[in-house]
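Structure first, sequence second, as always.
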């Protein structure tokens, strides 16, 4: 990546082309010479003549073009410009993305994509929370290449200490073909996980699970929003107190293959904090063979919808479920509210089961649209900072249950509240909420990431 303000040859010729195009158009018709911003552009006036991308010192053009709905010949609208801008930003490769239409005739325009790339390869500190719990802190170090070969490939080696320590190596290639039709994920990991199951504990004692896992996933991306995949893997789990019979094998060590298939439809405009679009996901995961000690099948589904009511107001909803079938479910394969999934008003309460279901609704009102600040004294990859904040009103409901227990609506834990979401640089989101449960008991919540 170019540093110190040097202009690449590619960017120079793109810039020269724009100067030539603008001057030629100015001689023909002054009113067409000025690039049109999103707010100035009238819908359906222009169609795309060609697409010019600048600022991508390392990232290949096809990585950016793969995310865009507008192609040569397509109409240019304010809505599509904003949507494509957010899709490109969601790649996580750029600090800033700008789209402009430069008219080349009375009916066509060149679509100019201007990018500010992030830093792609670096050692990075690891600091985070397990299960969104501030008492479960982990810390470590990783080596990351976010954009290997300029193809949005991810190479990561990392380790962490503290709560649930791990060592992992992973590789993701979203472009097995230049068209981005097929992708590959590979992962090796060993980690120690503190038992989550309340039922598996004896009195106040707890125990650790040591996991060794390898997995390989191959998927196909169909059009811009549809993805399907198959995965295979193998996992070994041992426990520190095997006499508690927390594994299905009496030896305290479970070994089994993994198989999975899944589908995902994702038309959201911005992955980190959507304001429009849908996400629909479904998967079937098989743990072990039917004749083995481990023989579990899981069926999971997740549906989310984001409806813009105005330029600042968004109504969002989610429904999800994770169902178990087959043989007995050991503690390490159970599902929970109170860890990764939460119910506001019951944020720190643990609900355990073999299956779970939940629903959420939120209203977002943007108090400050995301704005960009260019900070002097930092390298270019770190000099563009993005800030915004959003007021929220939300309501949640969820439950977890074991096979044999009735599924009834009265069993759902419920909560509601208000909050403020802060949109920070490098796609970070910090949430400050206050929520009440069914009996109006309130709780203050500080959390990371969008709620869904």
């Amino acid at each position: 990546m170019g540093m110190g303000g040097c202009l690449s040859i590619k960017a120079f010729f793109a810039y020269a082309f724009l100067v030539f195009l603008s001057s030629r158009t100015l001689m023909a018709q002054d009113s067409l010479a000025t690039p049109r911003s999103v707010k100035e552009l009238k819908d359906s006036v222009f169609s795309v003549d060609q697409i010019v991308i600048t600022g991508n010192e390392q990232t290949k053009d096809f990585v950016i073009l793969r995310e865009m709905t507008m192609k040569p010949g397509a109409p240019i609208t304010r809505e599509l410009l904003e949507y494509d801008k957010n899709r490109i930003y969601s790649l996580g490769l750029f600090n800033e993305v700008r789209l402009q239409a430069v008219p080349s005739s009375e009916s066509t325009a060149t679509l100019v994509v201007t990018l500010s790339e992030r830093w792609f390869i670096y050692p990075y500190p690891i600091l985070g929370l397990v299960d969104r719990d501030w008492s479960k802190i982990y810390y470590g170090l990783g080596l990351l290449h976010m954009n290997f070969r300029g193809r949005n490939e991810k190479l990561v080696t990392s380790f962490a200490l503290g709560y649930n320590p791990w060592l992992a190596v992973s590789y993701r290639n979203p472009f097995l073909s230049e068209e981005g039709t097929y992708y590959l994920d590979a992962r090796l990991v060993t980690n120690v996980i503190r038992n989550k199951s309340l039922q598996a504990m004896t009195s106040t004692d707890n125990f650790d699970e040591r996991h060794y896992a390898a997995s390989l996933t191959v998927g196909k991306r169909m059009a811009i929003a549809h993805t399907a995949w198959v995965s295979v893997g193998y996992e070994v789990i041992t426990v520190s107190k095997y006499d508690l019979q927390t594994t299905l094998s009496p030896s305290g060590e479970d070994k089994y293959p993994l198989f999975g298939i899944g589908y995902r439809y994702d038309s959201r405009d911005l992955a980190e904090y959507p304001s429009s679009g849908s996400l629909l996901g479904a998967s079937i995961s098989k743990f072990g063979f039917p004749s083995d000690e481990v023989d579990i099948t899981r069926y999971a589904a997740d549906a989310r919808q984001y409806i813009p009511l105005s330029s600042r107001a968004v109504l969002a909803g989610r429904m999800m479920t994770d169902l178990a079938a087959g043989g007995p479910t050991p503690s390490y394969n159970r599902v929970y509210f109170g860890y990764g999934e939460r119910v506001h008003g019951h944020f720190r309460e643990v609900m355990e089961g073999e299956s779970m279901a939940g629903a959420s609704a939120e209203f977002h009102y943007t108090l400050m649209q995301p704005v960009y600040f260019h900070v002097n004294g930092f390298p270019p990859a770190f000099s563009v900072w993005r800030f915004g904040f959003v007021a929220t009103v939300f309501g949640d409901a969820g439950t977890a249950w074991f096979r044999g227990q009735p599924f009834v609506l009265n069993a759902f834990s419920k909560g509601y509240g208000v909050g403020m979401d802060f949109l920070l640089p490098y796609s970070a989101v910090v949430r400050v909420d206050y929520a009440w449960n069914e009996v109006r008991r309130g709780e203050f919540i500080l959390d990371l990431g969008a709620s869904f």
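Margin note: The CA atoms of residues 201 and 338 lie 17 Å apart.
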